[in-house]
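for the writeup, i need someone to sanity check this before i put it in the appendix. the sequnce is what the collaborator sent (i think, or maybe the updated version? ugh). structure was predicted straight from it, no edits. if anything looks off just tell me and ill rerun, i have time this weekend
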Amino acid sequence: MLTLKLITEDTDRVVRGLEKKHFKGAREAIDQVLATDRSRREAQQQLDKNLAEAKKMAAQIGQLMKEGKKDEANAIKEQVSQMKDTNKQLEQQMNDAQEDLVRQLCQIPNIPYDEVPEGAAAEDNRVVKSNLKECTPADTVGNWDCNPTLGIDHPLPHWELAKKYNLIDFDLGVKITGAGFPVYIGKGARLQRALINFFLDEARASGYTEIMPPTVVNAASGYGTGQLPDKEGQMYHCEVDDFYLIPTAEVPVTNIYRDVILEEKDLPVKNCAYTECFRREAGSYGKDVRGLNRLHEFSKIEIVRIDKPEHSKESHKEMLSHVEGLLKKLELPYRILLLCGGDQSFTSSICYDFEVYSEAQGRWLEVSSVSNFDTYQANRLKCRYRREDTKKTELCHTLNGSALALPRIVAALLENNQTAEGIRIPKALQPYTGFEMID
């Protein structure tokens, strides 16, 4: 959540940032926070004043008793007793205000960085890079430096390819669980496992420490990274135990550092994790969510960094470069988008999306989001670091990204590598699959 210091000292910038994010009632929400904080501080000040006065009165009582002025001492004792009742009321008022303040702050999203473009929705996002360009008929098939062309008359979407080559059974998933829980079979299952191992090996080679976290978390962990309160109802909730199935490994991995003070010399912390992820995806219907395009359970490798503020932007660039490198090695057509204010997540300060192109579907498929959250998550987590020079503690910056999410990568690999003979496996992946073609 936003720090009270930022809201108090730079109110106008906070309001402008919330308006860029299209947060309704930004000014009113901030004014309410400031009013609640004033109420809390006034109660605290009065309580401190009363406690100081009570301390003086206690000294007076002792002196009066020594002087034999019992009646005067008892009169002051009565005042102290009345003051204790008042102090209890002030403590309650202060605690209530503090609870209200936290509740209000939890309803306010993070503010975007200045470089985040204005805009209300996905169509306002800015394409900052693409490996596609116009090409001539003489260009070779599979050269993703130009607009993709498969060289076959009727390219099939991945759900038809999955059925043709017996790779994924969507109907069997419906039988076992429901829609959005596919069953991977044979080379389809091996392709999944190959991608997981490939992505983990690439992350380790880039200096990330592999973590194998739980896929079920408590409410404190969901709160720490901003998934709770769950405003859109996208998390699966195990109500008996009050646990949640994770929507991403970001939640358990980042929460490793909840209530932790790190040393500056140990930053940045770099972790990666493979997990299954679970999202209800309520309200998702239609052709754009067919097949692997949108699932309730899916595999994903997440990279997470904890860094100091002055280095977090450099960390973000390195994460973007890492994800781009994966797409290059998989020989996929891709583009990178800088999300506008209105399309950013609740918790991010800046976010870039990676999309791969599906020639068979004729559309772009999002495969990764790489975000810098500034101090927003760290403030919830109470994740701090100790500076080497001053020995003072400050809030860390947290960052994460998908490196990568498997479903749409699999969809793009199947669709963009289909030939008359079968489906070609990219060279970088062949040592992991153990086969060069799906036929």
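The radius of gyration is 28 Å. The longest strand covers residues 297-307.
thx in advance!!
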